[in-house]
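2024-03-11 09:14:02 INFO receiving multi-entity request
2024-03-11 09:14:02 INFO entity count = two
2024-03-11 09:14:03 INFO echoing inputs for audit
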Amino acid sequence: MPRNSSFMRSMVSTAFVLVAPLIVQVLWAGGVAGTAPPIFHAVLMKDFKYQPSILAVKVGDTIEWKNADIVPHTVTAVDKTFDSGTISPGHSWKFIVRTAESVNYFCTLHPNMRAKLIVQ
Amino acid sequence: MNVPTEVVATIATTILAIGALNAPAQAQAVAPTDSQIVGIVVAANQIDIDYAKLALSKSKSKQIRAFAQQMVTDHSALQKSVFDLGAKLNVTPAESDTSKSLKAGVEATTDKLKALKSKAFDKAYIDNEIAYHQAVIDTVNKVLIPNALNAELKSALSGAVPLFEGHLEHAKSVQAALEGKTSAQQTTR
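2024-03-11 09:21:47 INFO inference complete, emitting structure
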């Protein structure tokens, strides 16, 4: 019996070593699913349009606007909560979403360029 | 605010010079060559730059000046891209009856605009910008793009249309603001 007891303890230890990482992995994944990590979004400014013109984001996400036109543009919130200043052709500007409020934005240089951030 | 009749007539002459190209293709005596198309774009660009510089020298309106400065910036950038593309494609801008008519019409329009002051100038300038950009858009879509033989030139012309359309919409918002209907800023909300 002592030999059997020792065998059982060895089996339990082995099983624990094998299963423990899986348990940790499952717990970690569950934690991640509960708080999604920030996401990177890219918006292209091309042909006098923001592409996409409507973008759904979450607080903490980063958005990068790249100017692919031959003229400068801006990314300016209508409520003035953010303003990129002039973005020259070929350059870009990043913004991290800090508040859970959707906002319309436009190009001050070309006011017909309009778009919207939907903050979820 | 009434704009003098002679100014309207002169502006109309300029627009008609562009508009002449808008006739159906079969009515065109000779379709413009790629060199002539580049020449027309260069002329049209320069015309709007010159109008804008005149506005910057005469107008005290914040909105007119901002719009005019944008025309200088954007059309100068477009002009550079046209010259760069022409050099790349080995296409030299060539004069045509249309480009000559454009330039002739501009001289008369400029003289008339110079004679106006204050709000009369602002209104005449922005009215002209609206009509001018609409005529250019029509010409590019109906004449220049269909007749361009080089695919890259055709693509570049198509790519320039959103710029002209943006300017047209911007000009309309400035016109509305001058007329007290709304402000250019409010139109973005």
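2024-03-11 09:21:48 INFO post-check: Residues 118-147 of chain B form the longest helix (30 residues).
2024-03-11 09:21:48 INFO post-check: The radius of gyration of chain B is 16 Å.
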